[in-house]
Amino acid sequence: MNRTLTAVLHREGDLYVADCPEVGTVSQGTTIEEAISNLREATELYLEEFPAADAGRPLVTTFEVAVHA
Fold it and tell me: Which CATH number covers residue 1?
């Protein structure tokens, strides 16, 4: 069985950090592709040990904040 999960990525120095909000797994890589591949592997290993019910997709949005100089 395959599930579609979300990967949220951001850059930290020379690395990309990938986070799966549905499961809570995090991984990293030197490229986006490597970070996602590492996240996939970490998530598969996690779900083998701790099966999770399908909680649905997270709502992803943007928001603005005031920045005072």
Answer: 3.30.160.250
